[in-house]
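Hi R.,

Here's the chain you asked about this morning:
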Amino acid sequence: MKKLSRGLFIIILSIMALGMGYLPVSAQDNQVNYDITHVELIGDITAEGDVLFTETQTYDIKQLNGVIYQVDLQEVNLGPYRVGVKDPETGKTRYLEESTSRQAGTFQTQVEDDLLKFTVFYPSQNEKVDFVFEYRLENLITNYQDTAELNRKLLGTGTDENFDVDAEIILPGKVEQKNDFRAWLYGDPQGQIQLDQSQNQSRILVSVLNQSANQFLEVQAIFPTALTPNNQNRVDQAKKEAIINQANAQVEQDRADYQKRQGLELLKLVALLAFAPLLTLYSFYLYFHHKKRLNPNPKHVPDHVFNLPAEISPAIMAASYLNRPLNADDFSATIVDLARKGYLDLGEEAKHQRTGFFNRGDSKTIRIRLLKEPSQQDQLQKHELYVLEYLFTEDQDEVKLSEIETAIHQHSQFAKRQNRLWTRFKNFCQVMGQQAVGESLPYRRKVNSWIALSLLASILVWPLLFFFLGFDQIEKHIVLIVLLLSLNFIFILILFFMNRKAPLYSQEEDYQRRMWRAFAKMLEDIGQFNMREIASLPLWDEYLVYAISLGVADKVIEAMNKQYGMDELNELALPTPFYNNPYLLHRALRTTMSSSIAAAHPKTAANWGKYQGSNIGGFGGGASSGSSGGSGGRGGMGGF
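And here is the predicted structure, written out as tokens:
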């Protein structure tokens, strides 16, 4: 009764505290958020046939209460085990206490249905942690009459994360005869396995770039029984040849299945063989037909336009009329535009000198201070709000661009945040750009689809011809085939470049596009004109923003310095150094933004998705997608 009353009292106090604002930490703040980035696994084989596993799991943590790791014990016996955490400074492992208290810095184990579950209680925030699991699997090696075998899934199917894997299986000696030491890898097709005989020790090295989620990784190996003389797990049977033949057959079968799948994909595209030239001709017809229909009488535009063609932001202008993807210039132009509008204050500042790979040697960086928070009445567009969010986190009102770039390199969660905001910036501008050319957009998409279809058909003709006709039939008609396909490909390229350089526009869209080009031409040739006669100085401040997106800001700044005095430039929105030193806009702003945007973009493995299952014979090579039936498939890891 006392416990019930005490519990009710605590609940009431909690509700009151929550209502009065004494519980400021929200549920979202405590949400588990982490990435598993790397798994390193070392397996030491002993003379007794045991394997001592040391698995290091690297977590990039935003918020974490602890981790769970499961080891499949089917067909194996568990020996001693330990759990620890690596010291980030010394690299040494600090071992945790096994306890049922669930206190921070402890772990507990549970075995159910031959599945060992480690639960590690280790609350963490905004850090990288290496969790170390050491355990012995007894008699995992099987000694036959003529060979010893390891057959184990190093990773099970219970992990919902992609990560890199490096594994090393260390034999208790060196194998002298090459044919007595073989190993095969099963699982992700991009995995690689090697046999290493250096340092008077035989090793099996495994590496997988971007191991797929819920994908097992299995190693099967044979070596002389002399290396495990004290092994009690013995089978009175000669199995060496059978193991080699079975493993090679599995690899061959996996490769055959892969080729069959590729063939089925090609069969789906066989209809394109006869239609490739016709598709190209039809694409040409669509392009010229819609071009004439949309813009029968183009409006005249002078070589130079001296007024802003339309009241749109530089980024949306670029997405609408420049026929190129958005880049860091458009992001930088938006920053300068926000400074011109009074939301930001820009200044130059000496950069903290760093050494290392990411130091480009620049001595100056841009300091940005938030002058005022945007309100609903300000009517800033979404892409401008994304820029402000990119520059400042919730607790910031001042930042250096060099600090943003450094944080991107050092913190993966921050890099993901920045890349997400950059993507939103691009997507919004592209949507607005599509609305600006909304009349011609359906026709563009139609022509682009037919061009893509023609190109796809032309590219796939050669492998399809080899697949269906064979080399002999192709050789008989090689001159005709090469001539026809070469001409078809050339016409596709011509249409492709025509469509990029002169895409479909309606009359008004084409007029606006050419007006912006004439405006850009005026900015490029501004040194030939009297700036005072063209526009007032505040207007040139606005034009400079567009010059950044148009790639001619240095010429505008040079002309402003020649035609205006320092006192006049001091009255503009940006600090004076931005007007008399093109370096600040070109290098310190544009180049730094380009570098930080590129750094935030997620990296991909070069061989991700490639099939490399070519390890015939067991002497090293790629992973095979099948399995040799090794134990340990139910293991997995994750946070809570």
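One quick note: Residues 408 and 599 are 7 Å apart (CA to CA).

Cheers,
M.
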